[in-house]
Every structure is written in C-alpha cells, then in structure tokens.
C-alpha cells in the first residue's frame, strides 16, 4: 500500500535473545537461577552469557557454527541457550542418556566445532571423541563444566575459567534474518536413528510466547526444572523464563522427594514433565511428601498422560495443563484448553477431557486430522482416525543434512507428525497411537494408548506399555509390558481379567510381561525395543506372564 515502508524503525528480526536484554534491565537484581547454594541475578546471568559469547567467539565460533553440549539441568546449560546464539552460532543440546557411540555419531553429523561437557558426563564424551578419532573424524574442542569451577582434567578448557577471563562487553551478533537457525535438536530416537531438527530465532521466540500464555506463566514465576533442557530446549521454557523474569530452580537429578522439597523450599509456582514425572510424584511415599505452599501449575506432554495419573495429581493439589507436540514443533504445539463449564463434571469425565490433546496454541496456525493419502480432513466424529498434521510458524525449518526427509515430512503443505488421532465433536483432537504402534488384530485397529490407559487404572500398576505381538491366527495381539508398584502382587491372569472387564475382548492384552520398561530420557517408552522382545516371544502361548 502506498506510504507503507519496512525499515529498522518498524521491523526487527524476532529473537528470544531480546528477552534476556529486557529482563536484565527490568529485573536486574532479582534472582534468575538457583542451583543448590548458588544463586545468580538477571544482571549477572546476562553478563555471564556475554562473557560466554565472547569466549566462544575468541575460539572461532561465528554464524552457523555448531556448539554441542552434554550437560544436566545446571546453570551453564541455561546460559548456553543465550551465549551460543549471541555469537551467531547454533546450540546443539545432546541427550544425556546417549552412550558414547551415539554421541560420536551426533557430533560428527552436527559438525560441532566446540563440545561443552558436564564433568559428570565426561566418560561418555571421552568415549565419543575416542571413537571419532579412530574414524579419522575432526574432533571438536572440549570445554569442561566442573562444579568447583577449576579444571580437574589436564588439557581441557574449563567453563568458569573461560568466563572469568572473557569480556562482558561483547557485541551481540543479532540475526539478520529471523529465520536463521538458533538451535539443532535431535529427535529422541524412539523409532529410528535421531534426526537433526533445525529451530529458528523466529520459531523459538513465538513458541516461548505461546507457552507463556497457555501455561499461564505470569510475571516472576518460580520454575522447577524437571523438564530436560536438552529436550526441545526445555520445551522453549529456557527462553520463556527470561521473558517473564522468572526464577529457574535447577536440579541435576531428582526423585519424588526432591520435587516436594524443592516446591516447599522455593515456593515453586510452575513445573513441567512427561507423565513419568507425574507418576513419580503421585507414587512418592507419604513420608517423603510436603504440603504444597500454593497451587503448582504443571505442564505435561511428551506422551499421552493416563487419566488416572491426572486424577491423582489433581487430588494432591497440582493444576495440570496438557500440551502436545513434537521435536519438530519446538515442543508444545497444541493445548487442551480448559473450559470453565467442565469444572462441574464428575471427576472421571473431567480427567478424560483433560487427557485429550486439544487444539493448536496461538503460535501455531492450524492442526488437523487428515487422511494421509487424500489429504482430506476426517469427520469430527471421535471415531475416524487420520494423521495429525500441522502448519504454522512454529514448525521446524527442516531436518539437518536430510532434504529428502524434510520434503517427505512437508508433503502436501503440512507437517506430517506420524501420530494417529481422531477429532472429537467439539473440535478437540485426541491421539490414538503412533502410526508404527497401532495394532491390527483380526482386521481390527487397536489403540495402544487406550489399552495403556486401562492398565494404568489398575491399583497395582506403576508403568505400562502395549505393543503388538505376532499371532499365527490374528496376525498380532496386544502384549502388555507392566511394571508393578513396590510390594504389589498380582498375576498376569488378574491383569488380563481386569482389562477384559473394561475393554472389548479383542483389545485386552493376551500376554503380560513384568519388569522395567526401557525409556528415553524424555520419558517416552522405547516401544521399538518392546516390539523386538514381543517378536522373540512368537506365538508360543496365548496368555500368561513372563519376566523381562
């Protein structure tokens, strides 16, 4: 339109780095990070991030250079979320449960120039570097984060020493294009080798704002870090905390007792976690619990939460926000927005509604359930399954070094999640399964999520997962892998009978396997491992229990 211009006065590329700049002025003397007895203010955090950026730039990091990090939820991990992109570089946070072999693969694939390592994870890092050297791969420079701030390993640079010797007057290298990469996140690898997902400054900014709004993260929150910061950059909450001037309570490791202690001591207002974290909380022994000082808002995602777990969390005084997304959508992409009229419903009905994945948050343009072949939307009848698809500004730039996979996932102009779901009459979506996990038994589709939900309602069950087991007659039948609560005693036949009372006969598990379930560090069950176990079981028996 005539008279309309775009210039520096009315357009600045979006970047979550701006959150830190503002908060360091507005809340400069307020606490930003707490880690044990150590605390920092927002002014100090900004200065430390600038010193970090200065050190990295001095070591040669510039635009699009990758800095990898293998660290727990500690202050340095938080600072890297700002210090690396301040140089124009790209932050690559690695899963702390990967072994040396996987870390070496991801270091090579990412092309990381610098590798920042938590001292307690040094053996994994050294093993990865040794494997890379054996393959004549160029090694990244290693920076060690030690609790004491002193270099305890000769020959390695130490994180705190670098910061002490660096300038706090570094000129931030702001992105010229807001779609420039800010981070590289590898998928959890529950089904295959991890893919490198590219996040942009723009997407990180928008998803941080959206998360603040839908999770009701008001100014000056106290956030307990039970979400791994390496996973989708802490669901973008690493940046969101800076936007709101919040206090981050960092935990290296935790159990239920630690969560209750932290909430009581720091007056935590917000936290997040996969359903495994929620299960940890509700199964904390009564002697280890402490009364909540106030309502704690909990954002859950990463896997569909069992209604029984949601009910028990509510009974303890936690307020749940259920979000759903993938690494490719910067973490949370939809939210089960709660409606006031649902408050009057019976508890059982309320938690079933809460367990749904809802609709897109304000940062995502659209979510739909489509037939993956015709790309037509399925009817909102709560029965017809299709693939969950997204489009909007908080969908990844693409897969690093894998154009074919990128174009395949974007085919038809939508991001194809690989998740199967239905749309309910009120428009909310509900997951039914991953496309790889759906069980087809005698021509009937069985949602493993529905079967798992029933298993979780059994009073003796602590954790459960269901996969298809080969069957000579039915093709495959449901096989449940179950971990019982401490001191619980129940037979496989009892669990099967319990499920048959609540499910159609064909959906109930035909076989039960007792033991621990393999998990990723983001709380997802590695079903591909369980599928392989089920295959080795063959069709030798129709029902019964066995040990892992």
UniProtKB/TrEMBL annotation:
Keyword Lipid metabolism: yes
Domain of life where this protein originates: Eukaryota
GO MF, one annotated term: trans-cinnamate-CoA ligase activity
EC identifiers of the protein: 6.2.1.12
Pfam families: AMP-binding, AMP-binding_C
Family: Belongs to the ATP-dependent AMP-binding enzyme family.
Name of this protein: 4-coumarate--CoA ligase
Gene source species: Dioscorea zingiberensis
Organism placement in taxonomy: Eukaryota, Viridiplantae, Streptophyta, Embryophyta, Tracheophyta
């Amino acid at each position: 339109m005539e008279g309309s211009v775009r210039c520096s006065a009315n357009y600045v590329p979006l970047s979550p780095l701006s959150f830190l700049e503002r908060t360091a002025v507005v809340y400069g003397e307020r606490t930003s990070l707490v880690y044990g007895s150590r605390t920092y203010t927002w002014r100090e955090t900004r200065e430390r991030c600038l010193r970090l950026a200065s050190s990295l730039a001095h070591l040669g990091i510039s635009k699009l250079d990758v800095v990898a990090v293998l660290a727990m939820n500690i202050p340095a991990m938080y600072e890297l979320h700002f210090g690396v992109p301040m140089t124009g570089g790209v932050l690559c946070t690695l899963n702390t449960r990967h072994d040396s072999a996987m870390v070496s693969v991801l270091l090579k694939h990412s092309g990381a120039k610098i590798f920042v390592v938590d001292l307690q994870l040094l053996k994994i890092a050294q093993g990865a570097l040794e494997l890379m050297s054996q393959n004549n791969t160029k090694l990244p420079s290693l920076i060690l984060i030690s609790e004491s701030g002193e270099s305890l390993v000769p020959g390695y640079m130490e994180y705190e020493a670098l910061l002490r010797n660096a300038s706090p007057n570094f000129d931030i290298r702001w992105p010229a294009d807001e779609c420039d990469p800010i981070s590289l996140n590898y998928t959890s690898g529950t089904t295959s080798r991890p893919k490198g997902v590219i996040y942009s400054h723009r997407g990180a900014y928008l998803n941080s704002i959206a998360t603040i709004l839908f999770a009701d993260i008001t100014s000056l929150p106290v956030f307990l870090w039970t979400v791994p910061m390496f996973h989708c950059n802490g669901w973008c909450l690493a940046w969101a905390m800076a936007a709101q001037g919040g206090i981050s309570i960092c935990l290296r490791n935790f159990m239920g007792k630690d969560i209750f202690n932290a909430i009581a001591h720091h007056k935590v207002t917000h936290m997040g976690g996969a359903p495994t974290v929620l299960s940890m909380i509700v199964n904390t022994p009564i002697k280890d619990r402490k009364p909540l000082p106030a309502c704690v808002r909990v954002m859950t995602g990463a896997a569909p939460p069992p209604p029984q777990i949601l009910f028990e969390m509510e009974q303890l005084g936690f307020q749940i926000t259920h979000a759903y997304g993938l690494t490719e959508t910067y973490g949370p992409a939809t939210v089960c927005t709660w409606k006031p009229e649902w408050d009057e419903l019976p508890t059982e009905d309320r938690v079933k509604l809460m367990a749904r994945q809802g609709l897109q948050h304000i940062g995502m343009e659209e979510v739909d359930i489509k037939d993956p072949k015709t790309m037509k939307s399925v009817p909102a009848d709560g029965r017809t399954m299709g693939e969950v698809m997204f489009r909007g500004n908080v969908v990844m730039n693409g897969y690093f070094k894998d154009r074919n996979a990128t174009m395949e996932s974007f085919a038809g102009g939508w991001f194809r999640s690989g998740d199967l779901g239905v749309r309910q009459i009120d428009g909310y979506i509900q997951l039914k399964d991953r496309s790889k996990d759906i069980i087809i038994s005698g021509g009937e589709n069985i949602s493993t999520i529905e079967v798992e939900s029933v298993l979780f309602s059994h009073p003796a069950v602590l954790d459960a997962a269901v996969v298809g087991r080969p069957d000579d007659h039915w093709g495959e039948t449901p096989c449940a892998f179950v971990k019982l609560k401490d001191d619980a005693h129940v037979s496989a036949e009892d669990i099967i009978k319990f499920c048959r009372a609540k499910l159609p006969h064909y959906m109930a598990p035909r076989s039960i396997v007792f033991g621990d379930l393999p998990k990723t560090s983001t709380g997802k069950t590695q079903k591909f491992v369980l599928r392989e176990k089920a295959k080795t079981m063959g069709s030798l028996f129709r029902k019964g229990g066995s040990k892992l």
